[in-house]
Amino acid sequence: MTSPHQLTAIEAGRQIDAGTLTSEALARDCLERIAEREPSIDAWHHLAVDAALARARELDRGPRRGPLHGIPFGAKDIIDTFDMPTEYGSPIYKGNQTANDAACVALMREAGGNLFGKTVTTEFANMFPGKTKNPHDPQRTPGGSSSGSAAAVGAQMVPLALGTQTTASTIRPAAFCGVVGYRPSWGDLRLSGVREAAGSLDTLGLMARSIEDISLLRDVLLGRTWEPLEGEPRVPRIGFCRTALWPQIEPAAAVLLEDAARHLAAAGAVVEDVDLPPGFGQILDAHRWVSSFEFSRNFRHEVVNHWELISQTLRDGRLKDGLGCTWERYAEARSFLDTCRGQLDGVFADYDLLLTSPCDGEAPIGIQTTGNPYFSAIWTALHVPCLTVPAFTGPNGMPIGAQLIGRPRHDRQLLDAARWVWRSIG
Amino acid sequence: MTSPHQLTAIEAGRQIDAGTLTSEALARDCLERIAEREPSIDAWHHLAVDAALARARELDRGPRRGPLHGIPFGAKDIIDTFDMPTEYGSPIYKGNQTANDAACVALMREAGGNLFGKTVTTEFANMFPGKTKNPHDPQRTPGGSSSGSAAAVGAQMVPLALGTQTTASTIRPAAFCGVVGYRPSWGDLRLSGVREAAGSLDTLGLMARSIEDISLLRDVLLGRTWEPLEGEPRVPRIGFCRTALWPQIEPAAAVLLEDAARHLAAAGAVVEDVDLPPGFGQILDAHRWVSSFEFSRNFRHEVVNHWELISQTLRDGRLKDGLGCTWERYAEARSFLDTCRGQLDGVFADYDLLLTSPCDGEAPIGIQTTGNPYFSAIWTALHVPCLTVPAFTGPNGMPIGAQLIGRPRHDRQLLDAARWVWRSIG
User: From residue A416, how far is each of A85, A204, A227 by CA, in Å?
Assistant: First the structure.
């Protein structure tokens, strides 16, 4: 029998609507799951057990608030909350309390969501890792920077969690933890109340265990009426895009994705190899300068006043790059990325979506680093919608994802087509 | 003799460097000016007199910090500060204290700036006005939403102040208060720690009493080495752009701007009438839906939890528009604005800058509203750099500005050419 904590948000919502499950029973079962799994995973930076139960009982007493009525969720600890501390993964902000909820949290709560707590982030959503372990193997990294959100959803502690992505911070941990991760088209979902890393690249990141749940959460975060993904998705035209990073991928992961491409063709999709335009080879370099320049200006208060509380990793990485990057170099890199974005119509002329790898393979052993970010960073820089689905299992029993890329601002079409892809691979 | 409070930032900085003025003497003179003028103007929401003097003495004891060493400034009260409250012009946030400085404040302080306090903003940088009066006539509005910043600079209380602009919130108050106001190209200056109104339109706004000061402050906010605007500016090719709003302008203001265009031609510039492409007529409508949709999502926490503390003006205006705006309508308006932005190369093919009006004339009587925003909103929506200079005096003795518009991301070229324009008009 399926326990409530194993349900997707939509499945749990249906049972709550039908009266066969209460918000409180769901919350209790998820909290039990957390009590069981948290000691070996450490997904939560702050867990508000009593508040979660009180909220569940309050929801059970009242009318249906919206499509997330009674659904537990977590929020990455760079996202402000009026009733819980927000510490940004940094000792500088020990005990920091903001006055209001970030827009995304407020929208989820308005729809009936039950915020369980704040999930572990790397320091300022950059590279220095937190305490979280991979739910499929505590020896391995969960990925970052949205480490706790991916681990909490992957461990079936909560069906939904919020992260962010400036480089690879949603797609990578989602793939490593075996969950569905979604980075929306840049600019679609509001970031008010989310600590900015590099605004021209930042987006929210959504974690769930089904594509339908991602679509539901996206509708909530857009502040629109939920329109479920329903019916038979159209068979998409698929570009199989290895990218210039292909030599970095683990052989087993490469074979799995190439097999999947063949399966999709056999299932009836047009699947063709597609190369990105030659100039796109400079995207990672441009991403580095744009993200570092903006980050180092955004964190000037911390640089000037709290240098000794910033990790060596951050000082010698993003901050060193950013503080050494001239305005001219930044402006050139930014213009280069604009030019690349302008070439996407050509890339997508014959395809509805691209199939590619979210990472270089299984989550690596060790929690001192968060893994290879480049397979995700390319797409982040291009502002396109990205989705990873836990399609495969690797040679060490770890989840491996398949990443699907959509046309800019065609997020719903991507999610719809991705249903067909996942089903056909699986 | 010129008092220190009358100096521009660059002039004061030169005297401090030369040892003929101390940071403390400058701060004391500005504070005396504030004590004299503030009772009739109410530019400040929070003024930190003791902290300003302490900071000035600290700066006098140490080495030169940067190009703003000892320079007093104000920051609009939607900009976070670690040592002063930030109340966003709303009773909801009475006494609110954030943990850190916004990026812009941290950058100015790092460069030696002396933050005197927080200037009055309209409620959440929207339309409901604060207490501030126009420094040139207390019966009249200072404009909004950066009301206090414009009034403080216009009344010679401080040489520099920070505002923001989502519609007309810097250019309009700057023009009404007789100061130089600058809205940078969208995306250039970091907004971390500034309360978001509508992220796809928001920028910082800079207030000063010279174009050279604006350029200095821009360099500081970019986190780059100051390169003063020097030498003889090139004579620009000028498009005189009345826009479709021309019938709304006061006759006296229209005559002043048309005379100025003739003066500029007589001084040697190419000056030609230019019309915006016909489709641009829908820009104000698109701006309305984009800004309202984003605003209403960003302020979901306040809408859900503090509805009774939100002004009727905001409830029945921006929030009603935004809560009633569908995602589809928003997405269409956003795409329309993208299309217009793509046509700017054509508009600027033959011109270095456009000359237009920042407002419909002098600041109107009454402080219940902040004046006509449309003359500025068009350019806000286009993401172009905008500068207003206090070029004229109207029939009621009030300042009237001339607005200059540059190519996107050609801000320095705009500021450079604007020196020639202002000198030639004046």
Answer: 36, 20, 12
Domain hosting residue B59, numbered range:
4-222
B202-229: per-residue pLDDT in tens? Answer: 999 999 999 999 999 999 999 999 999 9
Residue A60 in this model has a pLDDT that exceeds 90: yes
Chain-centroid distance of CA A345 in Å reads: 25
The whole-number average pLDDT for the span B344-350 is: 95
Q: What is the ipTM of this complex?
A: 0.97
Residue of B nearest to A186 (CA): B200
B306: contact with A, CB 8 A cutoff: no
Is A283 inside any structural domain? Answer: no
Q: What ranges make up the beta strands (E) of A29-96?
A: 44-47, 72-76
Please state, in angstroms and rounded to a whole number, the distance separating the CA atoms of residues B107 and B17: 20
Q: What is the pLDDT of residues B233-277, one digit of tens each?
A: 989 999 999 999 999 999 999 999 999 999 999 999 999 999 999
Residue A1 has pLDDT above 90, yes or no: no
Cα B243 to Cα A233, A304, B137, B359, distances in angstroms? 47, 45, 29, 12
What residues of chain A, 43 to 72, have a C-beta less than 8 Å from chain B? none
Chain B residues with CB-CB distance to A299 below 8 A: 103, 192
Q: How many CB pairs under 8 A join A and B?
A: 102
Instruction: Name the packing angle between helices B283-298 and B327-342 (round to 10°).
Output: 130
Q: For the whole prediction, is pTM greater than 0.95?
A: yes
Query: Do residue A196 and residue B191 have CB atoms under 8 angstroms apart?
Result: yes
CATH of the domain at B143: 3.90.1300.10
Asked if the structure places residue B125 within a domain, the reply is yes
Alpha-carbon distance of B139 to B143, in angstroms, equals 12
With 90 as the cut, is the pLDDT of residue B143 above it? yes
Per residue in A112-158, pLDDT tens? 999 999 999 999 999 999 999 999 999 999 999 999 999 999 999 99
* Chain A residues inside the 8 Å CB shell of B115: none
Taking the C-alpha atoms of B57, B62, B66 and B69 in order, what is their torsion angle to the nearest 10 degrees? Answer: 20
Let me know: does A89 contact A121? Beta carbons within 8 Å: yes
Decide if B361 contacts B246 (C-beta within 8 A).
no
Q: In this structure, is residue A97 part of a structural domain?
A: yes
Do A318 and A122 form a contact (C-beta atoms < 8 A)?
Answer: no
Nearest Cβ partner of A107 from B105, B200, B297?
Answer: B297
Give domain status of residue A274, yes or no: no
Query: pLDDT at position B87, please?
Result: 98
Asked if the C-beta of B100 comes within 8 angstroms of chain A's C-beta atoms, the answer is yes
Give the pLDDT score at B162: 98
Among A28, A242, A45, smallest CA distance to A114 is for A28
Domains in chain B, number = 1
